[in-house]
Amino acid sequence: MYRERLWTMRQYSGYGSAEATNERFNFLISQGQTGLSVAFDLPTQLGYDSDSERAQGEVGRVGVPISTIANMQALVRGIDLGNVSTSMTINATAAIMLAMYVSVGDIRGVPLNKLRGTTQNDILKEYIARNTYIFPPEQSLRLATDLIEFCAQKMPSWHPISISGYHIRESGATAIQELAYAFANAKEYVRSCMQRGLDIDWFAPHLSFFFASHNDFIEEIAKFRAARRIWAHIMREEFHAKNPESLKLRFHTQTSGETLTAQQPLNNVVRVTLQALAAVLGGTQSLHTNSMDEALALPTEEAVKVALRTQQIIAYESGVTQTADPLGGSYYLEILTRDLEKAALSEIETVDKMGGSVKAIQKGYIQAQIRESAFKQQMDIENGRKKLVGVNILKDPKPYRIKIHRINASSVRKQISTVKTFKRKRNKSHVDRSLRKLENALAGTQNVVPFIITAVRERATTGEISDIVREAYGEFHPKTII
Known about the structure:
This protein is of the alpha/beta class. It has a single domain (about 10-380), classed as TIM Barrel (Alpha-Beta Barrel). The protein contains 20 helices and nine strands. The chain has helices spanning about 20-30, 40-45, 70-75, 95-110, 125-130, 135-155, 165-170, 175-195, 200-205, 215-240, 245, 265-280, 300-315, 330-355, 355-365, 365-380, 410-425, 430-445, 450-455, 460-475; strands at about 10, 35-40, 85-90, 115-120, 160, 160-165, 205-215, 250-255, 285-290. It is globular. The protein starts with 7 loop residues before the first strand and ends in a 9-residue tail after the last helix.
């Protein structure tokens, strides 16, 4: 049986200035790329413009800075938005980044229904794993739901949310916890949409997921197989979905950054290959392979190319993509799949008894479980129970020297200057009027995404729009969890 799925190759592409990232986009397209992922820098993720005092030292460091629609235009210059699927790793400001992308598409004559891609938009896992949240959980959930509703209505080829187990796993969770807490979060999003009156079979086919692939080869394959069974069970038994499309688990996989080592970085090529192969054998529809030098810095062009070639060799040379479930029927794999499914469902039930993942997050339960798991894993490494080649066994006496990528300080200065110039040249009264309309929408029950799009088109910035939401909702400051 041939594999009935779309396997989209993706490669991370986001660092430095928008112009630098655009160069990498075009490089990847020239290398046979069919999907592109962009990461945003911390100021953009946290709702600050590049010229903000709060952004100092972080502009362009872990992704591309997008403060203005002009930045977004530079980011995708020369790229056919109607034919490329773009994945955005963004959460608290997801609606703003989508609004900028949509607005650039409009300028280019690409209608909403032709844009393809994904916004991560999974704010709940931020409170668990990454901490790049801005607003309180309940209000953030409202914004995430608005984006899901808007895309389901206007953008049928866009996945408005990528519910992420990846960051949960990378923060120290086990495979079981990755599944359990990702699906517990997913249930919160589904309930929020249904409470708004949305039909499950209307919006569920637009939901997507994002998982990590770690080093335990067989366990990871089993995890992906268990994930499909768990999601189908939740949709059918708990939410009573009727449409077969609602039961399908659409997921992207990224190899694990947490497992990469600064020691003997060339070994990471092997780790990434095994992790990528596990994802493919487990049935992923979309794949990103990390670069061998990411334990040291943002990847170099050469490292990115090796990572991309890794998945292309798997796709075109290995033969593993010819069947839907190549290892199905293996006794060990089937037993492990069953055990992971059972354990994950049990942990989901524990979260449900607390009132759902929002309540469990507020109580600190999920964070505490992951913290305990992360501590145990670290102790296993330090005590030698878990062996890492080049780290606690088979170490080299001399460190391996590898070229690393460094951010050009001039590109940061240029970005800040560009944002300041952009603000000076626009019609501020138009900006203010659009922001007041957004403020009114936030106080009511209307979907706020159209108001954010209008603000972007009137040349409001990421920071200005975020500040309006801050004024309406406040910022979230978690209680200290001991």
